[in-house]
């Protein structure tokens, strides 16, 4: 059988590989990541999977890959030795940032060190004015001297970001040419090519990140492609981007800043691909693992994206107002909210006598108390064992023995007794508190953007997502929860379903009324043409590629923009009036009010999304053993003061062919799905568990 | 299973969770859930204001706050935005309650900005929406935003040279902006005619109203989930909880009393006349008292603060030495009390001008940190840049269309007992963001010529102060009015425990050979082509500079944050520039030489550099 697809999702600890045949045949593998050379573990994993299923390498059509190589290079500060050239008077844009700190009242706060130290930041005496006119011409001799100085310092890469260059790249281009001429092997990136948008700090930071990670990403992708070529000569390598679309390895190497948040995108895209099976395209995705939980929103079949994000800022602890903790990337990315809540989250009592859960985590080591690997502080996993939600003897199909007694003892002495409650009350309290922390992530992507999650379907995955899915839905008044097949590997499956996407943007800052229509249409067409070329390069030329347009606008004077779709075709007065109305409507939806008709609306950014639609993946056929074989048929589980201890049937996914009423516990190899009393569960045609929360 | 956020009432009934009892059997975990929810509301209000606002002051400087109080106006939760507003809401709301008491109804929305009736300064407009469950007032949603202009004699309404409040803009006593849902057209009409940019003002008021509406909806959702009785209980408990945490943290600190003195350059009217700030902290057991008696009488210039402002400044310093995680609410205020004599710059009375009182707040923070440094030497940083400098450039273009550019800028931290001071980072009282140079140039008749660090200005120390930056503004319109409110021009940011003071701030017109030095506070007409330069003050250092790691000095030298002379004379470090290496032998010798020459053997607790005559006869600082 030909036409096999492979999805490879690299995490810090594990690499997940899924193999999907054209007929839906599925094989999966979870292996330790080879941190020194990620490509090695990937190829070993693919080789063993392929051998096991007697597949010829030439039958592999495609390998889609979500990778943390770019974000790791940033987080571990292992990128290239990078120089930065700026405009005279503005040497410290990168380091001054926007002044804001992520924490109040914290004297110990440290800014993340700039990716380019000051002595590697050089300036040239040039100036472009706000309208894009050259005010002070670049002096070629000075420019050469500055480049020489950086090369003498041994830089491997040079970023160029000049004031107002988003409007006119002439000086940036000249500097780029000088670097190419003097040092053909030195990576050089100019801000106009990376992000032709207004705001010098955002553009500088994004350009520097692109430059800084470029050599490491390029080397990695080349090595991987070489290895794939040897084994799977016909396989096309596609890389997941932060925006949820795939791109070719070439394009990813050219603009690595687009793959910084490649890792968590797969699950969200996978959820979108299931919208058809679920029969709904308004979805909240909820991905809970060992240390963090992530939420994203899909509205009307469109993934909600944010215009920028921070890398390495630690996780969201509540408010998204306080920024500045990490490295700023201004590139469209799936709008993911993340909280420090997972199976390993520690349960503790604070000085005020209130229970706290997380964000501290027991991590992989020492891990929860019940793993008996040295952990002594109770975690959410321990609470789930004490509540009877998780198997009291083993997890991962028997690979991980569980010591329930230890978990219960830790909860009793450290939490229940000090609070004067029973163990199950304490465990249940922890369960609710961690759920309420995770609700903040969901609110961050829904209500905080004017979207009411009621009426949405919650898609729960990750190792711990299905344990909490029903409880989260109840708290949010969501009626339906979908738990996909192999929820622990869902992100890798998602990679197989994504489209190829290119997101391009340009600043075009003018009031809508009286806008220069010819210039606007021309600018927009140029952007669309650029997107078409990139699609063609990825194999989606001509009709295979689609162009979608969006515009970011605000009321004159606001800084935050809202983005609305723009129909095809040249923009005439009627289309502009429709665009203005679409903005008013979006403002009203998001913030609950709109300004009067007399208030000027300003266009800020033109956006183009080029999409190459890929053939749909067949639904995976995963074998689901009945649960009863090893496990007892029922287990006592505690469902709060209202229901108390219940006998819950312990079943496998296949046992849900008929709808069954909770309490149920669905045990699978990589996850456990909890169905509380009052909630029913059944399989849909695609093999997903659908919980009816009622 | 019951929902994750479940009813807090009857059936939850377990025993107590450290105080969360006695609520008719409230659920012991309901409290934590409620607390999570209530803080999420305050934060979401803040996000709403931030995203929908029009003015740069709000969006970039985060010069706004959001809060929820209980039905009696006690602060429950504050949105995480501006430390400087902590404590402002209770004062303001008490004034509304004084005026209206129980004469409040669903659909009412109150507005006010009068500093002498609960407000802070006129640009800060408060909006309060009482939230009713049936007939019962359970809470208030509150927002306060700094508006770009509220009228008065100069654009931006923040001149530091006004001498009475009557010149500063529209003074709004507590009034109904909406009466049972009906818009107060009279008030709107008066506001419209008395401010320069009514569209901006109303746009920002809308943002405030939107935040209050969102808060009301979500709060009532909470009431539905928990019931009114449990809600009242949890609101009380959140305050008690914060008080317990605050007192527990205070108990960990040593008891003692310390005073500290610092000086504001002048008020911009009585040029060259220093203004004294003086605070005494008394820490005993689980409470702390700050008394600002000894501070200067209120001044003519517009830098007079209200007591609520003094409280916010005090809380900011104290909260910074307490552990994180304490909710910002009434419970904190119970354990940390603040007094200031009426008629002083720390508690001004009518008719004091107070538009530019921000300056005094920043300087009170410096002063309060100084006192804390005497009590807790290893926990507190040296003086920062003195807070943000306010720069306003306003006028009319050729078509008589007004423009107003308001920028607040700050960015150095004093050295800490364990690390260098931050640079390019907001002052701890402000947490503001800078405005984009490119956006300024697009929106304003200005070109920014420089925004970068200035070397050799930070205070030396084992850990050095933060390096200041400069900003150069070139004016492109025919004529405009430049107003600047800066400080630390005469009185430098102090160093601690052997650290040197930072270099003073600078204002310059048309930098270059013919540059004209300007005072720290000014209001001046500028013309096309004029360049105004502001340099922040360098922050103070901490500890003996001769004990600074020579490698750190080398790095600063290589990064051109200091020059050879500073390395050699302040730090005694000799560097081989060809190899970029420290010459250790020469450094040892140079340090020995400097040590022998200097005036002290024991590092002085506070170093301020040379000071002008202050004329008060007050004792020099110290514990």
Could you write a compact summary of the structure shown?
The complex is a heterodimer of chains A (694) and B (623). Chain A has 18 helices and 37 strands. With 694 residues, chain A is of the alpha+beta class.
- Could you tell me the strand content of chain B as a percent range? 15-25%
Alpha-carbon Rg of chain B, integer: 25 Å
Structural class of chain A: alpha+beta
Distance between the termini of chain A: 44 Å
Describe the protein in words.
The complex is a heterodimer of chains A (694) and B (623). With 694 residues, chain A is α+β, with helices and mostly antiparallel strands. Chain A contains 18 helices and 37 strands. Among the domains of chain A are: 4-74 and 218-259, 2-Layer Sandwich (Nucleotidyltransferase, domain 5); 79-213, no CATH class; 281-341 and 435-461 and 474-495, Nucleotidyltransferase, domain 5 (2-Layer Sandwich); 500-612, Dna Ligase, domain 1 (2-Layer Sandwich), CATH 3.30.1490. In chain A, helix 12 (404-419) packs across helix 13 (423-445). By secondary structure, chain B is of the alpha+beta class. In chain B, 29% of the residues lie in helices and 22% in strands. Chain B has a seven-stranded antiparallel β-sheet, with helices on both faces. In chain B, strands 14-15-21-18-19 form a five-stranded antiparallel β-sheet, covered by helices on one side. The longest helix of chain B has 29 residues, at 198-226. Chains A and B meet through helix 3, helix 7, helix 13, helix 14 and helix 17 of A and helix 1, helix 2, helix 5, helix 6 and helix 7 of B.
């Amino acid at each position: 059988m030909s036409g096999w697809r492979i999805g490879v999702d690299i995490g810090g600890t594990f690499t997940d590989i899924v193999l999907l045949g054209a007929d839906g045949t599925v094989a999966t593998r979870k292996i330790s990541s080879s941190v020194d050379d990620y490509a090695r573990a990937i190829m070993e994993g693919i080789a063993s999977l392929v051998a096991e299923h007697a597949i010829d390498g030439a039958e592999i059509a495609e390998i889609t890959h979500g990778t943390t190589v770019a974000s790791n290079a940033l987080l571990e500060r292992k990128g290239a030795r990078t120089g930065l050239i700026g405009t005279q008077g503005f040497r410290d844009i990168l380091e001054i940032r926007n002044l804001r700190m992520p924490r109040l009242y914290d004297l110990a706060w440290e800014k993340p060190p700039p990716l380019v130290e000051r002595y590697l930041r050089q300036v040239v005496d040039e100036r472009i004015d706000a309208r894009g006119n050259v005010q002070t011409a670049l002096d070629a001799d000075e420019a050469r001297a500055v480049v020489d100085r950086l090369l003498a310092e041994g830089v491997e890469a040079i970023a160029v970001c000049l004031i107002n260059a988003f409007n006119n790249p002439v000086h940036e281009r000249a500097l780029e040419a000088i670097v190419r001429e003097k040092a053909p092997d030195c990576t050089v990136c100019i801000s106009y090519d990376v992000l032709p948008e207004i705001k010098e700090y955002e553009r500088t930071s994004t350009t520097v990140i692109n430059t800084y990670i470029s050599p490491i990403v390029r080397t990695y992708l080349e090595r991987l492609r070489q290895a794939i070529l040897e084994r799977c000569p016909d396989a096309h390598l596609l890389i997941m981007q932060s925006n949820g679309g795939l791109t070719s390895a070439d394009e990813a190497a050219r603009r690595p800043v687009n793959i910084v948040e490649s890792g968590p995108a797969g699950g969200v895209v996978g959820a979108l691909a299931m919208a058809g099976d679920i029969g709904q395209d308004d979805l909240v995705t909820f991905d809970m693992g060992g240390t963090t939980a992530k939420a994203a929103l899909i509205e009307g079949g469109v993934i909600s994206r944010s215009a920028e994000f921070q890398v390495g800022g630690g996780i969201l602890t509540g408010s998204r107002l306080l920024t500045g903790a990490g490295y700023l990337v201004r590139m469209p990315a799936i709008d993911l909210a993340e909280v420090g809540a997972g199976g390993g989250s520690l349960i503790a009592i604070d000085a005020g006598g209130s229970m706290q859960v997380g964000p501290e985590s027991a991590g992989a080591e020492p891990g929860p108390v019940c793993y008996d690997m040295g952990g002594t502080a109770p975690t959410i996993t321990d609470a789930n064992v004490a509540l009877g939600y998780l198997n009291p003897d083993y997890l991962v199909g028997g690979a991980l023995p569980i010591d329930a007694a230890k978990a219960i003892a830790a909860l009793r002495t450290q939490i229940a007794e000090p609070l004067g409650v029973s163990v199950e009350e304490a465990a249940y309290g922890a369960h609710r508190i961690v759920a309420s922390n995770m609700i903040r992530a969901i609110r961050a992507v829904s209500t905080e953007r004017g979207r009411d999650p009621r009426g949405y379907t919650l898609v729960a995955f990750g190792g711990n997502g299905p344990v909490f899915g029903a409880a989260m839905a109840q708290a949010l008044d969501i009626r339906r929860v979908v738990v996909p097949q192999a929820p622990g590997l869902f992100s890798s499956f998602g990679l197989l379903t994504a489209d190829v996407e290119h997101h391009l943007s340009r600043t075009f800052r003018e009031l809508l009324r009286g806008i220069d229509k010819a210039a606007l249409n021309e600018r927009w067409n140029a952007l669309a043409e650029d997107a078409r070329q990139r699609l063609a390069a990825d194999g989606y030329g001509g009709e295979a590629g689609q162009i979608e347009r969006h515009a970011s606008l605000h009321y004159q004077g606001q800084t935050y923009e809202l983005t609305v779709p723009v129909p095809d075709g040249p923009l005439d007065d009627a289309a502009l009036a429709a665009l203005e109305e679409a903005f008013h409507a979006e403002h009203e939806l998001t913030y609950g009010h709109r300004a009067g008709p007399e208030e000027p609306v300003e266009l800020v950014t033109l956006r183009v999304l080029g999409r190459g639609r890929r053939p749909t993946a067949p639904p995976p056929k995963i074998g689901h053993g009945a649960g009863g074989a090893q496990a007892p048929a029922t287990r006592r589980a505690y469902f709060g003061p209202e229901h108390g201890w219940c006998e819950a049937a312990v079943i496998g996914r296949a046992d849900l062919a008929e709808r069954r009423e909770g309490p149920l516990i669905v045990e699978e190899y990589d996850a456990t799905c909890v169905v509380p009393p009052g909630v029913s569960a059944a399989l849909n045609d695609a093999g997903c568990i659908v919980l009816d929360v009622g | 299973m019951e929902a994750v956020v479940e009813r807090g009432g009857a059936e939850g009934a377990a025993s107590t969770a450290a105080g969360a009892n006695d609520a008719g059997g409230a659920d012991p975990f309901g409290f934590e859930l409620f607390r999570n929810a209530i803080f999420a509301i305050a934060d979401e209000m803040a996000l709403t204001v931030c995203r929908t606002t029009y003015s740069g002051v709000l969006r970039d400087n985060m010069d706004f706050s959001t809060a929820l109080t209980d039905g009696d106006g006690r602060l429950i939760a504050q949105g995480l935005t501006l430390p400087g507003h902590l404590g402002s809401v209770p004062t303001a709301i008490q004034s509304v309650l004084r005026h209206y008491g129980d004469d409040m109804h669903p659909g009412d929305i109150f507005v006010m900005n009068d500093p002498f009736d609960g407000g802070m300064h006129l640009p800060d407009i408060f909006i309060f929406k009482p939230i009713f469950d049936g007939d019962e007032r359970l809470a208030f949603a509150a927002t306060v935003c700094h508006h770009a202009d509220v009228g008065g004699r100069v654009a931006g309404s923040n001149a530091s040279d006004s001498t009475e409040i009557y010149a500063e803009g529209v003074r709004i006593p507590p009034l109904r902006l909406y009466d049972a849902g009906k818009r107060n057209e009279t008030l709107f009409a008066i506001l419209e005619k008395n401010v320069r940019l009514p569209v901006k003002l109303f746009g920002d008021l809308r943002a405030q109203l939107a935040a209050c509406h969102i808060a009301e909806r979500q709060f009532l959702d909470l009431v539905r989930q928990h019931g009114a009785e449990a809600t009242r209980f949890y609101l009380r408990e959140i305050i008690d909880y914060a008080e317990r945490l605050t007192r527990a943290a205070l108990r960990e600190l040593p008891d003692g009393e310390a005073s500290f003195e610092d000086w504001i350059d002048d008020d911009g009217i009585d040029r060259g006349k220093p203004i004294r700030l003086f605070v005494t902290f008394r820490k005993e057991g689980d409470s702390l008292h700050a008394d600002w008696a000894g501070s200067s009488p209120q001044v003519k210039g517009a830098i007079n603060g209200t007591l609520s402002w003094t409280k916010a400044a005090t809380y900011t310093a104290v909260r910074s030495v307490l552990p994180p995680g304490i909710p910002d609410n009434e419970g904190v205020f119970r354990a940390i009390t603040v007094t200031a004599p009426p008629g002083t710059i720390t508690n001004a009375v009518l008719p004091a001008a107070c538009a530019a009182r921000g300056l005094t707040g920043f300087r009170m923070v410096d002063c309060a940190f100084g006192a804390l440094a005497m009590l807790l030497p290893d926990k507190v940083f040296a003086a920062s840049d003195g807070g943000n400098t306010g720069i306003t450039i306003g006028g009319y273009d050729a078509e008589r269309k007004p423009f107003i550019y308001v920028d607040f800028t700050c960015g150095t931290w004093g050295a800490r007992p364990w690390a260098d001071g931050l640079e390019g980072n907001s002052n701890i009282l402000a947490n503001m963001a800078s405005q984009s140079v490119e956006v300024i140039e697009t929106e304003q008749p200005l070109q920014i010529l420089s925004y970068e660090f200035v070397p050799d200005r930070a205070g030396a120390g084992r850990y050095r102060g933060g390096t200041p930056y400069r900003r150069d503004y070139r004016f492109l319109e025919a004529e405009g009015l430049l107003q600047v409110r800066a400080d630390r021009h005469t009185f430098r940011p102090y160093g601690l425990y052997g650290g040197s003071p930072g270099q003073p701030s600078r204002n310059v017109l048309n930098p270059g050979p013919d540059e004209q030095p300007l005072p720290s506070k000014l209001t001046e007409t500028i013309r096309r082509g004029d360049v105004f330069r502001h340099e922040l003050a360098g922050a103070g250092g901490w500890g003996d500079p001769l004990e600074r790691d020579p490698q750190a000095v080398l790095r600063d030298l290589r990064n051109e944050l200091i020059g050879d002379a500073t390395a050699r004379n302040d730090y005694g470090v000799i560097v081989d520039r060809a190899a970029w290496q420290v010459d250790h032998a020469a450094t040892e010798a140079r340090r020995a030489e400097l040590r022998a020459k200097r005036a002290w053997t024991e590092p002085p607790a506070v170093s301020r550099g040379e000071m002008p005559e202050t004329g008060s006869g007050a004792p020099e600082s110290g514990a």
